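S.,

Sequence below, as promised.
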Amino acid sequence: MKKSTALLATLVLSASLLLLAAASAATASQTVGQVQSSVSFRSLPSTSSTVYKYLKQGEQVVILEQVNAYWYKVQDVTGAIGYISADDKYIEIVASGSNGSSAANSATIAASVSFRTGPSTDNARIRYLSKGEKVTITGQPNSSWYAVTAADGTKGYVSSDPQYITVNGTITQPGGSTSGGSGAATGNATIVASVSFRTGPSTDNARIRYLSKGETVTITGQPNSYWYAVTAADGTKGYVSTDTQYIKVTGSIPSGNNTGNSSGGNASGGTGGSNSGSSDQAVIIERVIAAGMKYWGTPYEYGSDRNTTTTFDCSDFVRTAYREGANLTLPSDSRKQGDYVRNLGSVKTDWHQLKRGDLMFFMDSKGTSAAAYANVNKAAETITHVGIYLGDGQILHTYSTASGGVKTSVIAGSQWEYRFLFGGSVL
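The prediction came back faster than expected:
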């Protein structure tokens, strides 16, 4: 008992020292936040990501970065790094450091000016910035607007007209380039019409904001033929449509695609062969997914005609995507497709280990809550649904008339996570 008590005391003391050290360090050069109400501590800045744990009221964290208007990247007292909501009902800044802001980027409001959610008068006004307020310029999407952060941490946009704002020095753009207070930020693409800027490559993902006509962005990758991964002038990262009616590429795009493999590497299990993750296979997978995306919105029909593409059920859709994209004809129903994957010998029962393009197999629905599946022996369940894993926690599939036909869905925290049996490659 004495040893246990001593160990417990040591652990408590260690945790306290860690917290004090974090708070002390943050006061000098970082920002400390205090949790105001129990909040999810997540693996990624998305409500569809894994919840590591819940932070309790009164806990303090070091804020490492504000990813966007909705999320902070933070480090807790144990040293773990994750993401929490930036909503002030959940967290309050109790010690503010420099957070990496450069004095060269400081500016002073010269006359009352609208502080907006985007670089356009069409965007909503957050509030008016008052004469004398200090702001930090984080980017310049075009010659008419600055992306700025106000003293309270709010991010938005103001006119770059010198009658409204006085720049104190040279503006450092994201990536290290300087503009000298005039001209647009450098990038490799320009927005040609207002377009949704989303947290992931799907219309199911949350909209960060609308990018406005004339904004300059940097394309950093292309997860598929329909979406670009881009960084806006203020440093915010997200995804936009590749449709040329919305974006014009003005420079070179980095070679190689962001395939969105959420497992963080090759999940082939070291078996080699068809799951080697070779560049040739990656090209085939992208063709398969592009073939599937081509049928976005195609109506669902149970037992659809395998010789047409006017309607699909789940297995018909998967079969068509692989036939057109990989010149591979799979069995015509989901159970036989499951047997096909099993026979290749590299199935995964944890969907996080799947690779982009792998097939996912599901049992029949027992409801939308995790509790409904708590006592299910999945090894004895029958396959009733199949879809194509896209990476980034999303599946491309079709499953009902009411759902709208072929679409993408988020897996984590949904019926698709609870119903999942196994998955794997067919190549």
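The chain has four domains: 19-95, 103-167, 189-249, 273-424.

Coffee later?
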